[in-house]
Write a structure and sequence with these properties.
This protein is of the alpha/beta class and about 280 residues long. The chain has helices spanning about 5-15, 40-50, 75-85, 90-100, 115-120, 145-160, 170-180, 195-215, 225-235, 240-250, 255-265; strands at about 30, 55-60, 130-135, 160-170, 185-190. A five-stranded parallel sheet has the order 2-3-4-1-5, with helices on both faces. Helix 1 packs across helix 2, helix 8 (about 195-215) packs parallel to helix 10 and helix 9 packs across helix 10. The chain starts with 5 loop residues before the first helix and ends in a 12-residue tail after the last helix.
Length: about 280
């Protein structure tokens, strides 16, 4: 949402849009955090900013409840297709490969294909291009994810113009992979340590509750300050807590009383099906 994660978004854009050849320590950026902290919202903001500046090569938003978006073998074909649409010389190389191997499928595709195609480019792009992969922990499992992640980080390590942004929960297998990366260093950011998280969630809550007030014809600002502060305290940095409560009070009889009842519930945070 506008007004949140602005410092981090600027930091990511500065990193992502440096011209190929400029001194840079890494071409891979891992952003991680617990469920509900706003990883997917951030990934959408990153994609929007990259697209606006003509630096977005492609994106893949993993979802555990979607068969096609929870299958690791679909990530590379999707990103290759997106890059082919973005950079015509790469499109020609992909077309040539498909002509020579018409039976190539996501299931038969080798993890090294992306790097093989990149190495055949007659010339690199004049600007950096960025892949964004969101919620990679919701795709596959500890056995199937590492191969895809290595393929992506390998390609970025060998192509100065290609950068990768990955978001996920801090799952053990993903943590191990990034700790074990030898061929290239990488940047990482723990959203729980975000210095602007407290102010960001207040901004998000103010905007979200103003929408509730408008929809339910409530006096603005709503709710009153003491109740608002209790919501922020109970949210504990989780944007999804605010969003879930806002959706609930939009549908209930008395929004204020429903909000108070939710906060008084000792298991209030258990009402959430956390994600993002």
């Amino acid at each position: 949402m506008d007004g949140t994660r602005e410092f981090l978004l600027k930091q990511l854009m500065d990193w992502a849009t440096k011209e190929p050849g400029e001194k840079e320590g890494s071409n891979t950026y891992w952003i991680y955090g617990l469920p509900g902290i706003g990883k997917t919202s951030l990934a959408h903001s990153i994609c929007a900013s990259l697209h606006k500046e003509n630096h977005l090569a492609g994106a893949f938003f993993c979802r555990r409840d979607d068969g096609s978006l929870s299958e690791p073998r679909n990530i590379l074909p999707t990103l290759i297709h997106k890059l082919a649409g973005t950079f015509p010389p790469f499109r020609s190389i992909v077309a040539e490969r498909l002509r020579s191997d018409p039976h190539l499928t996501p299931g038969s595709m080798n993890h090294s294909l992306l790097l093989e195609l990149i190495r055949k480019l007659p010339r690199p792009p004049k600007r950096t291009l960025v892949f964004v992969i969101d919620a990679v922990d919701e795709c596959g499992d500890a056995l199937s994810r590492p191969g895809i992640l290595r393929a992506l980080t390998d390609a970025a390590a060998h192509a100065p113009w290609l950068k990768i942004i990955i978001t996920s929960r801090p799952e053990a297998d993903i943590h191990r992979l990034f700790n074990a990366l030898i061929r290239s260093s990488h940047e990482r950011y723990d959203l729980a340590a975000d210095k602007e998280a407290h102010s960001d969630i207040r901004i998000f809550a103010q905007i979200r509750f103003s929408r509730v007030a408008s929809k339910r014809f409530l006096p603005s600002p709503w709710p009153e300050q003491s109740l608002f502060d209790r919501v922020i305290s109970r949210a504990a940095g989780l944007f999804v807590f605010i969003e879930t409560i806002a959706r609930a009070v939009e549908q209930c009889g008395d929004p204020t009383e429903h909000l108070k009842a939710t906060l008084e519930d000792a298991a209030g945070t258990a009402l959430l099906s956390l994600g993002g």
